[in-house]
Amino acid sequence: MFFVRSSAIAVFLLFSVPSLGATLLADDVKAINKIDRDVIDPKEKVPQLRRQYERISNLVAHVGLEKLDDDDVSDFYEASFKLAFYTLEPADVRKMRGAFQELEARRLATARNREDMLTTYVAARMFEEALAFRKLPENDALSQTPEFEDETDGARHSSPTLLRVSKEGLFVTRHAHPIGDGVQVIVVSSPSCHFSREAVEAISKDRELSAKMARASTWIVPQENVENFSSIAKWAEKYPNAHMEPVFRQSEWTFVPNWQTPGFYFLKDGKLVDSVVGWPNDQQIKKLSAAFHQVGM
Q1: Where are the alpha helices (DSSP H) in the chain?
Q2: Predicted TM-score (pTM) of this structure
Q3: Which ranges of 224-283 does DSSP label H, i.e. alpha helix?
Q4: CATH superfamily for domain 149-294
Q5: Of 101, 117, 30, which Cα lies nearest the Cα of 66?
Q6: CA distance 226 to 196
Q7: CB-hemisphere CA count at 13 Å for 65?
Q8: d(Cα 85, Cα 93) in Å, to the nearest integer?
Q9: Looking at the predicted structure, is the pLDDT value of residue 8 above 90?
């Protein structure tokens, strides 16, 4: 049965693949772009992107990457980048690097491609690979990549982990963040999110609420494609009571159902009790106060 199925696949590819003079991947890459545009929920988007990418990858494997024309190589890189951007899985990032290397071998790699490769490494927390990539002579113009230290020694922990960012944003240290007894407010935020800024500024004007937030809140940043962490360092200088730390991996923060910014998640004794998501206006202050009441604070 295995040989019959393998032969059938080979015959399908033989008669379904256009001649090498045509653009092989254009329609499949359009399909990936359509998924990206039309499917909003990441839980639906990522599986659909992966299925479409596997089709593209099978076509490329059948023909041979080195035999594709330049347009197809560019399309394959874009498809690989799009998948890695949404999954941030190391295996997908390495596939993106393989496509990038073919671009580079053909002298097609742009400055933007190089920036995307570096920021994807960093967002996927592949710091060693990011540093090695940044040190290549051809990447000298790219932003500085932070050096990485792991206080957890890479061990598995029951607690999620964060990245402590140095004052200059040039060093990051992974450390555990215990989710224990009592009240904690985990705030999903971003220095590039103007709604996060509006929330901080509104909270700071409410004396009682700002005092509670100062005692109970931890401000975290999703896995984002950023060139460096200097923006987080600058945020800490401006808003010391809302000091942000990036998560090491979002998958560790199992009680966070939504990575929209800002999102306020109220925990009591390690269990999610209430949440306030988004900042359409400063009326959210009342919702935050009510949530603190819910957790008994």
Answers
A1: 2-16, 26-38, 42-63, 70-87, 90-105, 111-123, 127-134, 194-204, 207-216, 230-238, 284-294
A2: 0.85
A3: 230-238
A4: Glutaredoxin (3.40.30.10)
A5: 101
A6: 17
A7: 17
A8: 8
A9: no
Burial class, 33, CB count within 10 angstroms (exposed 0-12 / middle 13-18 / buried 19+): middle
Give the pLDDT of residue 157. 63
Domain ranges of the chain: 2-139, 149-294
pLDDT at 226: 72
Confidence of residue 16 (pLDDT cuts 50, 70, 90): very low
Output the six-digit token pair for 92.
């997908």
DSSP states along 212-239: HHHHHEEEEE-----S-SHHHHHHHHH-
Contact of 100 with 78, CB cutoff 8 Å: no
pLDDT at 11 over 50: no
Report the C-alpha dihedral over residues 234, 237, 241, 243, rounded to 10 degrees. Answer: 40
- Give me 208's structure tokens: 């009682």
The per-residue pLDDT for range 27-78, each reduced to its tens digit, is 999 999 999 999 998 889 999 999 999 999 999 999 999 999 999 999 999 9
